Amino acid sequence: MRPAVPADVGDITRIWRQGWADAHLGHVPAALVAARTAASFAERAREQVADTIVAARGEEVLGFAMIDGDQVDQLYLDRAARGGGIGAALLKAAAEAVMAAGHQRAWLVVATGNVAARRFYERQGWVDGGPIVHRAPVPGGSVAVDGHRFVSPGR
């Protein structure tokens, strides 16, 4: 685990775009799917590189987590890196970064239909705090997405 650097943006963009499609297609409104273009992922990855942790093996980026205050805003793994414990380690590093910044707990949102993600977070000890309407940012505003707010274990 290490802080992301600008040279990681291409890998972050690729992993994010693929992972987002795997996790969200069929679970979010069409307006959000239309807004999530390749260019939008690249732009957001560049803008948020300073708030990103990457899981890397040598120079190869295997996954990333983006932090926004006390929220783990994004967490994705390369398809080839899934199922080997890297996601759990990345989630732990992200939660530790949130708490190191002075917060008691971290939280995140999972799209309601993303059952695999919900199970993953529950296995990591995160608690489903119930339904939430997440305002996903898009150019010119946001799109309402039904989700569940998961909260990390405390300190």
TrEMBL record:
Gene source species: Occultella aeris
Domain N-acetyltransferase, residue spans: 1-152
Record flagged with keyword Zinc: no
Alphabetized InterPro entries for the sequence: Acyl_CoA_acyltransferase, Bact_Acetyltransf, GNAT_dom
Signal peptide positions (record): none
SUPFAM superfamilies: Acyl-CoA N-acyltransferases (Nat) (SSF55729)
The protein's name: Putative acetyltransferase
Record keywords: Acyltransferase, Transferase
Pfam family, one: Acetyltransf_1
Family matches, as PANTHER family: AMINOALKYLPHOSPHONATE N-ACETYLTRANSFERASE-RELATED, AMINOALKYLPHOSPHONATE N-ACETYLTRANSFERASE-RELATED-RELATED
